[in-house]
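Supplementary Note 2. Why include the ligand at all?

Several targets in our set were suspected to adopt different conformations when bound, so apo predictions alone were not considered sufficient. For every target with a known small-molecule partner we therefore ran a joint prediction. The input for zinc ion is given below.
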Amino acid sequence: MSCWYCHRQEWDIPDMGTCTFCGKAICTPPPRRPDGWAHGDECSQCEKLVCYVHMCRHSEENHEIEALQAFPKVGFAAGEAALAAAGSLLYGPHPPELSVNHHQIEAMSNLLISMLPGLPSLAKVLSDRPTESWSRDHNMLADTEEILIQFHRPFFTRTMVTGIFVLASRTAGACWLYGRRQGRQPDVRITSMPEELLNELAFRVNHDVELSEELVSSWLPRPDYDRARDIVVAISRLEMPTEPEQIAEWIDRTDRGTFKEQYFGQPHRSDKGGAAAVFRVDQSQSADNRAAEAEEKEAQGTEEAIEA
Ligand SMILES: [Zn+2]
Ligand SMILES: [Zn+2]
Ligand SMILES: [Zn+2]
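The joint prediction is reproduced in token form.
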């Protein structure tokens, strides 16, 4: 049988069993998808299979721990992919021209739903009023009372993506740490991050230290200390809350407060196209960015034609 979630995206990826919570067939690490993502994993505490949508709920209700600790492999994949996606948007050569593409939306959404702050906290703050930046996906879990939240382009403003970048760096560091402690080392074949940088991110989980700019710079395709400095400052932002419920509230406040802020991919006057991805892991997506930009140009052209 194919993984239920992969099948929904028209991927045929063999499942490794069903989620103990919702009964959906799920794929697990080591990932068989080219993007390195898996829709579920064995819980490190009780060895039951759980899908990514239910990881936070399972960890809290059954073990009173965070999903980061119970599912470090999937957590690491989520953190790493979201870090690359948010990093490319924030620290690309021409950030305002770079569109958020559907791979990046998926990577950042996977992190928010599965790990930090997780679906239960998000649903508490967001479920009353869908906006243009997010909606409910009823089909997803039609057989349960739960909703799944889908994020859309207007959600991904600069402030929000900076927050996601910080959450992603925490997640990658924490899962790297917990994974190794539990003998469940995350799969590093999918990452472009130097192991020393992962070790520093892991060390930061329990110690308030700055990352080394030199290491961050080594993660970039070309050494760039100015950009590395921006990244270190973003990751060190202390005003980002640590508890899932407070993170969800921050997301809600940011979503409501930034309605005038431009989002990544909003049609832009100086849209020149062809922006290159910055992070090595994200290079495969630059073609996708160009496609998204072409789509937007086409949409703009149509609007102009209608106005004329
Ligand atoms: Zn899957
Ligand atoms: Zn499930
Ligand atoms: Zn468990």
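Confidence is low (pLDDT under 50) at residues 269-293, 302-308. Residues 67-257 form one domain. Comparable summaries for the other entries are listed in the accompanying table.
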